[in-house]
Amino acid sequence: MNNENLEKQLRELRKANTQELPPLLRTRQDSIYASLATIVQDSGAKKKKRKIYPKIAAVAAAILLSVMLTAIYPPALANALKQLPWVGGIFERADDLGLQAAQSLGLISRPNSSDTHEGITLSAEEAVFDGNRLAFSVKREGEKEGLGDKLTGVTVGPDGKLFQEKGTISSAKVLIDGVPLEEFAVGHWEAIPYLSWIGGKEDNTAIFELVDSSNLGISTKPFPDQFVLTLTIGLEGIDEPFILQIPARRVTENIIDTPGIRVQADGWSLTLQRLEYSPLTTRLSLTLEQDADGNRRAFELTDFEVMDEQGQILESTHQSGILSSDRSRNVDLLTEPFGKHPNMLTIRAYYNELKDPKKKYGLYKTDSSGNAVKHYIKGLEINVLVQ
């Protein structure tokens, strides 16, 4: 859809529902329309300016849609607005600094792979691989009777029970150059590479992530720098699985450090074995150890956070671990990249408190703000200089 058609649809929708806009929303809408009109009318500007105004116009339209959809609108109008195109790609709108960086740095590829069954099409939209994680996005299009809005997740029914709507992802498995993931674990079933997915900003999209297990300190097989991923997806209510082919190629030169820093405190020890960072991912290999007479529950619930020198905690994207002995655990931790290159990172160990202390597993106890209660393990803190 070009900018003129987009502007026209927006103006018609506004005109049709003028009487229903609250004063505050009307003020915001008129301000955005004024900016949009100025941009579009500047057709006689220099060539350089003409190149950038469509993107600016689209951003203005997207802001307008965001404001409008947060107001109380008639269902018909809200649904009509939802059909208009959004700005940017799935990665660009993800809550993941690494994927946003991949978009802005021009590192993503377009797999150009799709599959259709019963009028429903799944397509692989974007992909990026930095040697640590392969991320790719999938979009669902098409119509089918009874099809739900979501591509991922579960829905709460009228009876309070969870169920999957028709058209949501019910299963997914992958092959790397025709080889199953079990081959990369080299006999260690607990180290099979992990495939996960979450919903994108739009209900009909999903973002997948695949991480190898080469950082767990055991003899596993890393992913090659270039391969073809075969993705088989099952959708609820669709008989045939969807098969997509996603070429992956490492697109970053990562910085790797092996500091071997070890700290000890009160029967605990923590070692930073390896640190690797790219524009997409920060990856740490850790070893946590506890004396035999220590608090086993705390050992099992121990987690880690990574913080830069400004006190900004890097959002964790993936964590896996494997026991090397009864009280020794190798941990592979992936976080988002740091927005601004720091001089130092701090790794802290903590354990969460369970809501029901009598149970071995379950919900975490939360504070008044709804955040999980953290008990930092005194002395288990590593400061490491960043190259």
Could you walk me through the main structural features you see in this protein, from its secondary elements to its overall organization?
Keywords: Membrane, Transmembrane, Transmembrane helix. With 387 residues, this protein is of the alpha+beta class. The chain has 3 domains: 3-82, no CATH class; 97-249, Immunoglobulin-like (Sandwich), CATH 2.60.40; 255-385, Sandwich (Immunoglobulin-like), CATH 2.60.40. It has 7 helices and 20 strands. Helix 1 packs parallel to helix 3 (47-69). The chain is globular, with a radius of gyration of 24 Å. The two termini are 46 Å apart.
Whole-Å distance between the termini?
Answer: 46 Å
Uncertain stretches: 1-8, 13-87
Radius of gyration: 24 Å
What is the element string, with H for helices and E for strands?
HHHHHEEEEEEEHEEEEEEEEHEEEEE
Global morphology: globular
Main beta sheet: strand number and arrangement? 6 strands, antiparallel
| CATH architecture classification of the largest domain | Sandwich
The number of helical runs is 7
Level of helix content?
10-25%
Strand content: 35-45%
Structural class: alpha+beta
Number of strands: 20
CATH-assigned fold name of the largest domain: Immunoglobulin-like
Estimate nothing, just give the exact number of structural domains. 3
Class of the largest domain, according to the CATH hierarchy? Mainly Beta
Mean pLDDT: 80
